[in-house]
Batch of 4 targets.
Target 1
Amino acid sequence: MSSLTIENSTTLSCPVATSSFSATAVFEVQSPSRIQYLPFQVEFKEGTFKPPEMKSKIDLPENMDIFGQNISLSPLQQSLGPLENAVAGIARTISGLPPLKVPIPGERTKSWLITTYLDSDLRISRGDGGLFVLVKEENSLLDQ
């Protein structure tokens, strides 16, 4: 059996900043003889918090629909100067910081995964954490 590494990541974005978190896991193919039904043993080892990327300009739409009413955000946009200056100062402070790596301890870090469908663009798996539908990042299914 061979051991491989995978990384699950997510990115959170707001008008002021973008931040991301990832969890690294090692996995082992438990049954390599059955290509269409591969059980995996997965163990998460480490989480990584990347420093937020502060946006240089707060990008708000001109109007926003709130509870069926079209609200103009122009007055708010005009008063964002001081906030944008504060955000720029924070961005300068944290821009060179390295990612924060945190070990993931305990027995609950282990899981299993069985792939029930696999092609060149899509993988459908189930495990003790639920059902997972994974699509390659450059796939056109993500644009729909």
Target 2
Amino acid sequence: MVEGGGSKADETEFTECWKTTWRTPYLVKLALSAGIGGLLFGYDTGNHCDYSCGGCYIWSWIWRVDKWQMIILRRIFVGLGIGMASMTVPLYISEASPARIRGGLVSTNGLLITAGQFLGYVVNLAFTRTTGTWLWMLGVAGLPALVQFMLMLTLPEPPRWLYRQNKVEEAKAILKKIYSADEVNEEINTSRISVETEKADEQEIGDSMMPKLKGAFGNVVVRRGLYAGVTVHVAQQFLGINTVMYYSPMTVQFAGFASNKTAMTLSLVTSGLNAPGSVVSMFFVDRAGRRKMMLISMVGIIVCLVGLSAVFWQASLHAPKINPSESTKFVANATCPSYTSAANPASWNCMSCLKAECGFCADKANQHSPGACLAATTELKDACRAGNRTWFETFLTLTKAIGSAGTFLLFAGFCVTGFICIYAFVPETKGLPFEEVEKVLETGYRPKTLRRKSRGSPTSA
């Protein structure tokens, strides 16, 4: 049974990435030029808007939003850009990186994503009270996108891809810029064996799409790799980070910081902590290993999500009450219809109002005092804010069904499931070339606690 990892990985120190890149600045150019896509992807997340990396984003930035049809078209272009960047950027960096520092270099993409998120919040805060706010917010993304577009024109294809296209000399020229002279021939030989094996498999399977798909799923290496990859990505998407990032200002406001500017400023803490976390990952991912880092981070996320759930549960119990007379300060029939028809309106508070899909207008003097539960209309929202009051509304459909506390507890449940699946199906790959990773998958992986005691026990496919 293969546990994953090996002597080469065990000897790798956390400073190896920095030493190697210092000696090989060409690697830095490759990683950062491609990684700008991560920066702009993160900016799109932190900005809550529709612009990010590459040519698709530049094109969408040029367009003006005059009609809803244009907004939909721009979302299509941005979606294409995000999809291509999310897949190609880490793939490009990994294929162009030496195995011993691949984790650290690929982590630069994650670092730039978190840096982009922080930049998005900073830009939002800077242009909060500026004329044409959203145009400035979106326009800023066009500059680094243009820089990346120009840099990508100068970058080569990955050596592995060049070798597969029979461009051996071009592949050697790139490898000489990445590896030492005595390592180039070894890398070329490794690529030759790998590509020959791939081509042999393709000849056996055929050229049409359906036989290729059938053959791929019939391949134990591909199947196990798919299990591991899907497990990690599903766990990442369901752990709740997108909810925290997209709705951070609203979450801060629910915690008692009413001012939009204050909420945006405090949200910088959330996005700002992402970047140092990525730096920690870059230092240790090639020393401690990918698997261990994922499991440790999942435990931390679970603890934090349970903590958030407890905080929101307490917030729902101590939320400001509803003062019926407060709604009379606005237009006629402003009170939330569900509140007026409720069997026991005296028991309602801010959270009850939001679950009824209405808006809560906080008291002007003290936002913790009873406020008004109003119909969720644009006119009443504007009237509430015009009186220097804070307007709250339900920011997720899920929170209506199970509440904010239940939402974060659900995310914690997903994380527990993700932890179990990562522990069971994802092997360690630190310091291993792609060919060695294939051997790990071919042999099969089971953690020690799940291995059968009987000798020669079969592994699952």
Target 3
Amino acid sequence: MKCKWCDQEGAFETLDKGYWELPDGTRAVEINELPSIQCVYCGMCYQTDELVGDVEEQLMLIDTSKLSATFTYKELMNQERLLKKNYFDIDRYPL
């Protein structure tokens, strides 16, 4: 796999942690076991644009007051949604 940062072959899929600010701006949370890409050459560990979009969408559609300060990616994605989709994200869901 090619690294998006240094453009070298040798990146691989892994699990890492990431930090997100909740959509209402009240606090930040730590997400563990987050699917990520790690590069053996430059050392960068990052998430794909698609995964970032999925996390942000899920945070918009759930009751974030029920979240602890730290949780796993699977726990986040298994949270019950209040809406089926984010109707305000016109880039992902054009009219």
Target 4
Amino acid sequence: MLKKDFKAVLVSMSGVRVYNQKLLQLGLTLPGFVDRSKVIASLPSLGLLTIAAHSPDNWAILYKELDAITEASIDDILNEAPDLIAFSSLTARINETYALADRFRQMGITVVMGGLHVSALPDEAMPHADSVIQGEGELIWPELLTDFQHNRLKPVYSSLTNKQYAYRVDCHKVPRYDLLDIDKYNRLTLQTTRGCPLDCVFCAASRTISSYKKKPIAQIDRELAAIFEVWQRPFIELADDNTFVDKNWSKELLRLFASYRMKWFTETDISIAQDDELLELLAASNCAQVLIGLETAQAMSLTGVDRNNWKLRQFDTYLKSIEKIQSYGISVNGCFILGFDTDTKETFSHTEQFIKASHLSEVQLTVLTPFPGTALYRQLKQQNRLLADTYWDKCTLFDVTFTPANFTVDELESSFQELMGSVYARKTVAERKRTFKQTLTNKITSTHA
């Protein structure tokens, strides 16, 4: 076995904490909200597992997750005697990441940072790291480690500004799922596409790291095989922004998925309702659910949300499209955002009415959040409507971080809390599940009629 000359510890700053105390207390009684939060919190960092696969052979790689920072968790990392520590963090935990990185650097350990937030604000991150990765890390990571070995580490490695790190189809390696303690997870992540061509103004992922691209089907097959080596009956959540943009490629993907015994979940857009063959393949592949960004229950709020007002042009089809998708036995999790400039107090009652009329099997409610690097952030910053210069710990999707157009901050928070309480009430959640179960029953009956 090749001697490992160096050691890197990859640290995922997992978990997000809601600051709104009333919503936090209310959340204890909201089963749908709590269940989805638990799922998100239990996902490993696919970005770190991916760069781990691109590490030179003379590097030993360890993967750690820090939900709560304790002295014991810090000692656990220090006891590994790493040469380098690499952090990946969501915006909501970036301040904690900076503080911890500063502490490790004071101990003489080299620190590297990457991820969505750091890619959007590399200059902010640089004082807290010896090196920053901006954009896609796979092609950057091997050179970064080689530079470290030769004491020539650069302050920034960017795939967004340096064509040397341009994405290549032949650059793929299988993420290091073997680094995980599988017993800790209720699902694993797999990425089949990156980026999204819709480029919604509020989306922190659609273009911050990468433009839209698809993985080769053969590579996805290799990654699935690696997952099955560590977990025989996995639940897989795709780390995609919008999986089924290319319908022909998507059908190849679904045929591949159908050959594996697994259940899975992904995010997509409403256009899948327009393709019966795709829906048939989706159902046959054991897809448990698709999350679709419906965004709003009123058409005017969709004006200017995405490129060429695509979602606005789909709005009138929403109810029929949801019905059609779910008629194939595929659960739809409809995602709604509250706090657009066109929203009023009536928007909240309209949203509740729409959810009931749509018979969505599940619902995700969030507050409009201006993540750094997005068009929404730039707009609100220019309008001096951000509540603070840096409000990163409030980027939870459930905390208000800007001055709304038609509410006070307190009014938006209280209206959101009331809607959450109604939509996620136990009786209401149970009714949605019963309705979808009846849809499945009707599908089975009609199939055998």
